[in-house]
Amino acid sequence: MAAVGEAPTLFLRKATGLVKGWSKFDAFLYSFMSVNFVTLGLFFSLSVIGYVPTGQVLPALLISGAFITCLVVTYAGLISIMPRAGGDYVWQSRVLGGGIAFVLSVTGWWFILWYWTPIYASILNVEVLQPLAAFLGMDGLLTFLGKDIGLFTICVVTALLAGYLVSLGMEGYAKIQKYCFYLGIGALIVVFVVMLFGSRSGFENAFNQEATNLFGTTGNAYKDTIAFAGGHAALPAKIGLTPFLGDSLLIIPFLCFWILWPNWGSTLYGEVRGASDFKRVMSGMMWGLWVTIAIAVVFLLLASKFFGWDFFNAGNVNFINYFYAYTDSPGPTPIWTYPPLLVGMFFHNSLIGALLILAFGAWFLGWAGTLFLSSTRVIFAAAFDRILPEKVADVSERRHVPVWALVLMLVPSLVVSAFYAFTDTFKTLILDATLVIAVTFFGTAIAAVLLPWRKKRLYENSAMARYKVAGIPLISITGAITALFLGYNLYKWLWPPFDEGNLYAINNSDSLLFMGAMYLLALVIYVVAKVVRKNQGIDLSAIHKEIPVE
Amino acid sequence: MAVSRGGPTRIFFAADIHGSQITFRKFLAAADFYGVDALVFGGDLMGKALVPIVRSNGGYHANFQGRDEVFDRDGLEPFTRAVEQPGFYWKVFEAEEYDAVETDPLAKHGLFFELASARLAEWMERAEERLGGTGVRLYMTGGNDDEPAVLETLERHDGDHVVASEGRLVDLDGEHTMITVGLSTVTPWDTPREASEEEIARAIEAAVADVSDVGRCVFNLHCPPKDTPIDTCLKLEVHPGELPRPIREAGRFVTTGGGSLAVKEAIKRYQPLVGLHGHIHESGGRFRIGRTQTFNPGREYVQGVLQGVIVSLKKGKLVSYQHTQG
Prior knowledge:
The complex is a heterodimer.
Chain A: E1 11-12, H1 24-34, H2 37-45, H3 57-81, H4 88-95, H5 98-135, H6 139-145, H7 148-167, H8 169-197, H9 200-215, H10 221-230, H11 252-259, H12 266-269, H13 278-323, H14 339-346, H15 350-368, H16 370-384, H17 403-422, H18 432-454, H19 456-460, E2 468-469, E3 472-473, H20 474-494, H21 509-535
Antiparallel strand pairs in A: 2-3
Chain B: E1 9-14, H1 21-33, E2 38-41, E3 49-56, E4 59-64, E5 67-71, H2 73-84, E6 89-93, H3 95-102, H4 105-131, E7 137-140, H5 148-156, E8 162-164, E9 170-171, E10 177-181, H6 197-208, E11 217-221, E12 232-234, E13 236-237, E14 245-246, E15 248-249, E16 252-253, E17 255-257, H7 261-270, E18 274-276, E19 285-289, E20 292-296, E21 307-314, E22 317-325
Parallel strand pairs in B: 1-2, 2-7, 3-6, 7-8, 10-11, 11-18, 18-20
Antiparallel strand pairs in B: 1-21, 3-4, 4-5, 9-10, 12-17, 13-14, 15-16, 19-20, 21-22
C-alpha cells in the first residue's frame, strides 16, 4: 500500500518527445558567452569607465546586476510560459500585436545588427590583429590596420567570417564554440594568475621596456600614458565602493553595452526540452550573469593592483579619445592598452605575447557567429509568418543555411561598414546598436507586465502562475522593474543631446535620423506586407489570434 | 468530399496534439475561425502519460509536473482540467488498486487503452456535433505514437464528418486528392507504429497506386522528409531503464534528422501538390523539394496553443499557405 505522504508515480507510455531535460550548465553557457567579458566587457564597457571619474565601477556593476536579475527573471518567465523559438518577436506579437512586434523586433534583431558588423570588426582589430601585429613586429600591417581602408578590410573579413560560421549550421558552429570556450577560459586564468602574483613595479618596467621595443616609445611610457590622459580629462583616483550611488549610477548605461545580454539565447530556448522549467532556465541565465560579474570584479581589482588604476583608465581614455577622433593622437602607445597585451608584455617574450593574444582571440571567434545568427533567425521567422517574401525563408538542403536571409545581412552590413570606416561622424552612432536592442527589450518587458491579464489562460496554465508577490504576478513585477531600468538607461543615452554634452555620445542628429529611418523602414515593410498578403487572401493578423475554445 | 465554394479549397492541417483536450477543441473551432473547407489531422492523437489520483484520508493525492498535490473533492475538477491540458489522462484509484496497477505493466497498458479510446471516441462525437451542417470534414489518422488498438476506434467510427483517412484515397474537393501514411521511422522511444524505411516506402507506394493524378494529390505523411529543416530534432542516447537523454557538446545540443528517407524519395519522385507532416515537434516550418512545398506545423499543445498551417489549393496548384499559432 502506498505510504501516507508518498506521492503516486506518473504512469508513462512509450511516446516520442519524452527526454531528460537540459542541464543548468547548458543555460549557463548560453548566457555566459552572450555577456562576453573579453569582447564586450573589456572593449565596450570597462574601457570607458574613466569618463566618470567621480563614480565607481564596482557599485555600478552590482546595481546593474541586481536590475538585470529582474530582466533575467522576466525572460525566464516568458520562456517558461511560451517556450517558442523567436523570443521577443513571439512574446510581443502575442501580447502587444503583430505590427508592434515586427517593428520592434526587426529593428532590434535585424537592421541594427548591420551596425554590429563594424563593432565586431573593431573588436577583432583592437583585441586580436593589432596586438598580434605589434608582438610579431609587423609594422606595415600595424599601420595598415590603423587606417580607414584597414578597418574596412577587417569589416569585410568579419562579415565573411560571421557568414561562414552561420553557413556551418548550428551544429558546426557549436563545435567551434566548444574549443573556443575552453581555450578562452584557459587564457583568462593565465592572465589572472600573472596579475595576481606579478608586481606593479615589475609591470611598469616591463611596459616601459616593451613599449620601446614594440612601438619605439622613449622615456617613461607608463607615466607618459597617465600624463597624456590627464591632459584631456580627469581620471578616477582609485577603485572603491563610494559613492555607492550618486555618480556611480552614471556608469550603468556604459555597462549595459555589455551585461544587458544574459537573455541573448532566449530566441533559441524554445528549441530545447526543459525550456518550460522556469527555475532551470532562470538559474542558467542568472549564473551566466553573476559569474561574469564576479570575473569582472576580480579583474578590476587585479587591474588596480597590477596595472595601477590610474594607468588602466588612462590607457583606455587615450584609446577611446583617439578612436572617436576626440584627439589627434593616441598617446604614447599607438594601439589600445588591451589588458592581455599588457600582460603579454610582462613576459618580455614576443612569441608568448602573441600566443596569449591568439588564445584570447578564441573569445572573439566563439562569439563572432552571433553577429548574424540571431538576425537570420528573425528574418526567417518574419518570412515564416508571410511578412517577408517566401524566398527569404528558403534554406539550403545540406546545412539548412538561410541563404537569402544571410544575403540580407551581409550586403547592408558592408555598406554600413564603408560609412563607418571612411567617416568620423558615423562612428559616433556605434552605441545606437545597444540602444535599439534595449528598446526591443523594453517592449518585451511591457509585454511581460501585461501578459497575466492579456493571456490569462496561457499564464495560469504555466509554472509562473505559482510565483506571486502580494497577489501580484512576479513576472509583472520584474517586468515593470526591467522596464524602469531600461527606461533609465534609454533616458541617459538620449538626454541631453550630443551637442549639449551627452556623456554616452549617442544622441546626435545623425543618430536620431538613422534610428528613425530604421523604425520607418520596418513599419513600411509591415504595412506593404499586410496589403499584399490581404490581396492574396492571407490575413496576417490571423497568425497570432487565439482560437476560441468552444 | 468537402464543399468547395468556387475559390481555392482551403485546408487547415495540424498534428501531434497528443491527447490535449483544449487543443483538440481549438482544432475543431479552427474550421470556422479560419474559414476552411477541410480539417486534416496528421497523427499522434494519444496522450503520453497518466496521472494517478489516489484517495487518501478523505481527500486526493497526486503528483503532477513534479509537484506533490493534495486536494479535496472541490479541487478534483480543476486538477483534472489542468492534467488534461497537456494531454495527460487521469484516473482516481483506491490506494490498494494503485499499488496493484503501479507494478503491473500490462494493467497500465490496459488503462492507457481504455482511457485513450474513450477520449478519442469523445473527440469524434464532439467533431460530428461541432461540424454538423457545415460541409467541413475532418480527416484523421494516427501517428507512430498511437496504439493500433486505440486507432480501431477511429476505423470503426461511422459518421458524416469524421473520416479515418489512412489507407484510403481521399477526394478533397473533386479536384484534389489526399493519401495518408501515419508510420514513422524508428525512434529512441520504441513507439507503437514505427517501421523500416522499406516498409514506409511500400506503404506510400500502395497509397499512390490508386492516385490518377499525383500532381493534384496531397501527401499527408506523418513522418517528415529526412534531413530537412522540418525534421531537425535533438540527437538522443538511450540508456536502459531511463528516458532518452539529449547528447550535448560543450553545452550545446547535437541535432539530427528524425525524418524518413522513403518519404523524401517519394516526394522527389512523385512531386505531389503538397506534403503535410508532423512527428518532429520542434521543427515547425516549410521546405521545398522540387515543386513540392512540404510543411510541418510544429506543436505547442502543452501550452494549449494549436499550431497549424492553412494551405489553399486550386487547379492543381498551391495558391497560398499560412502558418498559424492559435
